[in-house]
Structures are given as structure tokens and as C-alpha cells.
Amino acid sequence: MGEYFFQTTNHITYGACISIDGEIKESNFLLANKIDSVPSDQTKELFGKIKKSMKTNLNLANEPKLVNDSMSRALWPKIVDIAQELLIAQKLGRAVSLRFHGDADGVCGAFAISSIVRCKAFQQNSAIYSVRDALRDISEATYLALPLQVIVDFGSGESCSEGLSLLKSAGVETIIIDHHPPGKNDGILVLNPLLVEEGKSQYTAGYLCCEIAAAAGMGLEKAKELAAIACAGDKSKVVEPDSGHVRKAMVLDFLTAHTSFGNNLDFYKKVMDNPELFASIANQAEEGISEAAKKATARMKITNIDVGSLKLRIATFSLDGLLTKGEWPNSSKVTTRIFEQLIADDPSPLLCIGNSDRSIIMRLNDGAVELGLSANDLAEKMKETMPDFIEGGGGHARAGAIRAKEEAVKEVIALLIKEASEKISL
Ligand SMILES: [Mn+2]
Q1: Hey, CA dihedral for 253, 255, 261, 263, is it positive or negative?
Q2: CATH of domain 70-273
């Protein structure tokens, strides 16, 4: 097997599977006498064979290029699998559809993936790959040869499994690159650090995509830059971001917050490459956050809990009426900003709670985590204690959120304060 070139006046669709009767001329030129399309019931089998032989000829890195630690090495076999799949898809002209989560991490991941394989990219702000999404992708894929669906920064959770199983039944191969709590995804290629070790969500989807792209030959500098922006967006230090990366992540978060669905990768690239436009968006984004943070801080209440030598500060503030749904900034951005200001002034243990009309956002610093507190545990406890008033919630140790019925928000916050103080007194 090998790669050959030929010319023809026949019309052949991109990515089609054909058989050629002809002679091999010179080194890799094929003189075609007869060209036929391969019946669709045979393409799958043929594709498997071609893929297998192509895999051995791919030139991939032999270790992680961006971060080389025990975690990235544990993820490496799957990183290689996905890099191979994507490079082969590119060579064979497969129809690749890419859905990325609408935030800086998701966009950086999509930038990286689209740099190694030609694809149609769609932003998605919902974190759930629904049955509706699956039906749309399946109907798009109906007339395509060997469609490949790639999902970045969402899609591996339990709530997505119905949509994914539809994709599988329709024969659409799927790759998921995610770092949110995974559910069961049998028969789907899933790269997720949480499948390797609990609590490792700091290996963000955007970072993983950059590691895949770097393995497949993307320039190292560009891959590092994108990975650092992705990490800045998701508050990770796996690839340590500088202040420039933080600013870029903020601009991408700002842009994605204003666009709910669509193919915006080209537009995002344009903004990042246009210094003037970038600066003016960055200023607007920054102003939006700092203004809302200032107003919310004016309403802030601090509760000091002292248990023997253990001390915990709990900051609570309402964002009600300060923000507009679906616009910049959202309540988690503002809560994070206030949290960061508070711990910059005083690094002692802090639990920071911001609330909008129906959601409660929690941020904890290292000191609070060392006291045994976890945002995820607190969210779980609230779900248990007030099941009729809590609609959902979760997160990890340092960050989490709870969605509650409007009339219950105040009560939930009071209970959170009580729960946190009881927890550290244990
Ligand atoms: Mn992410």
C-alpha cells in the first residue's frame, strides 16, 4: 500500500471512496484506465484497512510536547489515538464536524483541532449534547462519506449519553475531548483526565486539544500559546498563563458570551489578529466585570467563623439586578473577580458566595480547601438537605454552583454558611 497521485476529468466528490484500474507510472503516479465508485456497503471495511495501513506511516511525536508529567503521560496513548484519527481524516478528506463549548477553553481547543484537520466548526454554549443536537448532526451527515464528529469541552457527561448513542446508531464516528465529569460512553473515543484520575480537571479540554495538535505537528510555540489561554480561561495552571494570556481568555469569553450558536472560529481568529479591535473589546470586557464587581462588593457581607485556632471568612453578596442574562459578564465571572480581589488582600481561608436570582456561585481558596471544605461537597449537601428547592449543582473543590428556586436562594445561602462552619468544627 502507498499514496499515489492521478489526474482525471471525471467528477469525484471530496472524500469519496473509489476504485481505480490502471498502471503505476514513475514513482507515485497512477495512470487510471477505469474509475469506479466503491459501493457504500463496502466502504466501511475498506476504510478500516486503509486506516490501519496509514497509521503505521504517520509521523507523530513520541511523548507529550507541552506538559510532560505523570498525568499527561497517562493520557498520552489516547492523545496519540486521537491525533492519528484526525490526521487520517484530513488525508482522506473525511467530513469532520467540530462542536466546541462557547468559552475560551473551548475556542482554543477548536483552534488547535482545526489547525490539523479541515472541519466545520460550531460553537455550543449549552454544556449538554442533546438528542436534538444529535439529530441535527445525523441529518447533516446523511449524505457524507465517513462523517466524523468531534466534541470539545463538553459532551462526556451522563446527560449527553442519549444524544451520543443516537450518533453511534447512525454510524457517525465520534471523538470527545473533555474534562467535565464523565458518564458511560461505550464505544466512543473519549479523552478525559477524570477517567484517569479523580480531581484532575485542571488538564482542560483546550490544553488536551493543543497536546493532540502538537503531537500531530502543530508549531510548538502556537500550541503553547493556545494552551496557556485555554488554561487562563478555566483557571488552570497546567500550562502557566501570563497576564497576556489572561487578557486573551477574557476577550474570548466575552465574544463567546455574546454568541450563542454558530460558526465563529474565523471571526474569533480575526479579533485575536487585530490589535485595535482586540484592545477595545478587552477594555469593554474588563470594564463590564470591574463595574459589576464594584457594585456587588458594596453589598458584600463578611461572616467570620472562629473555631479554636481555625478561622474562615465567608463573603456573601447578591448580583441580583446588576447583570443581564445572556450578556457579559455572567455571575460566575463577577464572583471570581471579587474572590480574587479578596484573596489578594488577605490570603487567609475564604469561602466566597455570589448569587443571582436563581444561582449560587461558590469559590474557595487553598486555605479553605485545607480546612476540609469543598464546593462540590457543599453543593451535594444542599441537594440532599433541600431537594425540593434545589434544581441542580456541583463542581469541584475550589469552584461550584447551585441552581435553586428563586424563593429559596436566601435560605440556601444561610444553610451554606451553617454547613461550612459545622464542617470545620468537626
Ligand atoms: Mn473547559
Answers
A1: negative
A2: 3.90.1640.30
